[in-house]
Q: What sequence folds into this?
């Protein structure tokens, strides 16, 4: 169970990072 929760946390963090990165790209445009 701990492994699943940790992987889910990484997924959510990566999603937030991707969204922020996309926002930065749009700002550059």
A:
């Amino acid at each position: 169970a701990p492994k699943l929760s940790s992987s889910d946390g990484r997924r959510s963090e990566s999603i937030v990072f991707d969204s922020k990165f996309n926002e930065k790209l749009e700002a550059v445009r």
